[in-house]
Amino acid sequence: MDQNELEQQRFPVGRFQWIEEISASQRTELIAVLRQFPEQLKKVVENFEAADFKNTYRPDGWTAAQVIHHLADSHMHSYLRFKHTYTEDTPTITPYDEGAWSCLSDGSDHDVQASLKILEGVHHRWCQFLDAFTTEDFDRKYYHPQLKIYFSLNQALALYAWHCKHHLEHVKNCKITA
Q1: Does residue 112 belong to any structural domain of this protein?
Q2: pLDDT computed for residue 2 by the predictor
Q3: How many domains does the chain divide into?
Q4: Secondary structure string (H, E, C) spanning the chain
Q5: Residue 1 included in any domain
Q6: pLDDT tens digits, 11-54
Q7: Global pTM?
Q8: What's 51's domain CATH number?
């Protein structure tokens, strides 16, 4: 497999592009991505066979089940990062080893129903929370100690909207077609 094909499999919607300024209409669109994501993911996997959840989206990639469990873990973290950032002055977030988490028993189980329910609940609460934000609230920042950068909640919102699309395509690519 050549590098271009591997890059396409790793980043089917392209790499995340940092956005410095986000308009109110862009923010509305990004929140809509978060709001719609759990239902979109459920529709993608509704016709999966058991083997599809064990399939990877690329060589040496995660299985569909691992991607879905990762989404639940990651989006819970992000929602809590938003809450900490809203209620604290530039908090330092706690990073985690997503690769190690994907190998844990709850991160590699092929039954994804609990993670789908987590995503539904987290996204509902997250969007409800975001709907009450002012423009200034999205300018609040947290510090990521691993990356050594500050994220505004605008940037984090854009990142997680991209994250939804990115991993939705990964899961789609795990479906075994006849």
Answers
A1: yes
A2: 86
A3: 1
A4: CCHHHHHHHHCCCCCCCCCCCCCHHHHHHHHHHHHHHHHHHHHHHCCCCHHHHHCECCCCCCEHHHHHHHHHHHHHHHHHHHHHHHHCCCCECCCCCHHHHHHCHHHHCCCCHHHHHHHHHHHHHHHHHHHCCCCHHHHCEEEECCCCEEEEHHHHHHHHHHHHHHHHHHHHCCCCCC
A5: no
A6: 999 999 988 889 999 999 999 999 999 999 999 999 999 999 99
A7: 0.95
A8: 1.20.120.450
